Structure formats: C-alpha cells, structure tokens
C-alpha cells in the first residue's frame, strides 16, 4: 500500500524504474537549449524528488555529464530521458513524461524563456489529425506494444515469468 | 534547397538533411510521451528529403512491431521515429528547431489535460534563475554546439 502522493515512473522499455515518495517540488518546464537538445524537444518538463525519498526500483540509468555541475540520466536500452541531477544536492529532478501518471503533476512555472520557441504559445491552436478511416495500423501497434505498462511490474523483460 | 543539421546533446550522433521539409507535428500518444520523457513528441518528417547520418550510429529500440525509435547510446537524446512509411526526427535535436513550427497534432487521445495552458505559466529568463542558483553564471557546457564540427569529441575533452 502506498500513499497517494507516491509517484512511480520509468523509461519506455521498462529497464529502468523509479519511485518517489511525497510531493514533487517545483514542477516546471525548462526551455534552455541544453534541456531542449537533451530531450530532442521544445522544452524539458522537470520536478524534484527529495533524494532520501527517491529509489531506483529496477535497473540503473546511464549518465551523460552535460556540464561539470549537471548529469543527465537516461535508459541505455531505449533512450528515454529520465533525470536531471546535480549530485551534491539533496534532490533529483525527474522528467515528468516518464512518470506513470504525468497528468497528476501540473507544472507551475517556465524557466529559461529566453530560448523558448517563438511559436510555443500557438501550439494549443494546432489542428488535430482526423481519426484514420481504417484503424488497422493503430490496432497492430497496440497488439505488439513493447512499451512497459504505466505501473510497476514483478519482472523485466515482460513475459519472463511476469 | 535548404540544408538543416542536427544531432544529439553530446555530439556523438550528427545528421544533415536537405529538401522541402514541411511535415512537422506533435504526437500526444502515451508511447511518444514515455519515449521522450515529456508531454509529447515533436517530430519532423524527412520522408522524401535527402537525409544522411554524418557522424556515429544511433541505437534503436523497437517500441512495437511497426516502429523503431532511435537515440544516442552515449547521452540518450531521442532522435528518430522510424515507421514503414518513413522516418521522422525529434524536432529538438535539430540545431535550429525553431525552423520547424508544427502544423498538426496526433494522438490526442493521450493528450494531457493541462498541455494547452503551459504557455500561460509564469516564466523566468536564465539570468533571473542565476540569482537563485549562482552556479549558472559559471556553467561550462559539454553539449555539442548547434552546428557541424570537424571532430568529436572536442580536443579539450579527449
């Protein structure tokens, strides 16, 4: 039984899984160019777990030292960006899309907006792709989905005695 | 014809593409979210364009029977979405992602409720953050620059 505020998450393939107790601190979007490129994205959504409340429950991330102060953790098997870590601190930042329930942690701030995409504010007005006439491809992807489910599992890889 | 370059954060993987690139999108599906550790995957299709890897070899994870996702095995940057009908590049991996404003959204069944309001959040520039975190003023980046380079890794890191 875990408290409601406990968060679990991990990478796409499930080789690296983590758990954080308690509320996550300062959920925010970082628009700096380093977070952009590390994430292959327009920004990186991050929030901090206290290190004492944070546990790796499966596997180990790989680390890239992006500067002397900061290292970035990711899954060496599938690449999912997972952590933004300043090792001397008492907290570790998690990428919010790697949470099993990313909807549950709403960001409160944007940082490094000097490098923000100039059209970032317009993304919510984008048109939406119509549903495909034949869902065959979507169904086939769903049937062969190799992504780890959005909850902890007993064993990994999946299917080996799970 | 315009040529665009890009690569991963550390610079082990670099690419170049030239052609008429218009198909830029964001995908909200849960597979793209988790693969990118983010709220959505911004993807730029290079189908029909002249694309080449100019340095290194990406690692790939087969996320379903149809799709492989490429990333840098050294630094983790998500790089590609590779489907039977063509390949798309993670927009943020381009040296100038601002060149590809997305034109459509996919996978909205997975869209996160607050995503449309993110741009309304209050914001800080880096200089302001530096007051709270003075280390930012002395930060030396080991990220590959946003342009092509002759050699990798740079001399000072070898």
Automatic annotation (TrEMBL), chain B:
Pfam families: GFA. InterPro entries: CENP-V/GFA, Mss4-like_sf. Keywords: Lyase, Metal-binding, Zinc. Residues 4-101 form the CENP-V/GFA domain. GO terms for molecular function: carbon-sulfur lyase activity; metal ion binding. Belongs to the Gfa family. This is GFA family protein. It comes from Rhizobium leguminosarum. The lineage of its organism: Bacteria, Pseudomonadati, Pseudomonadota, Alphaproteobacteria, Hyphomicrobiales.
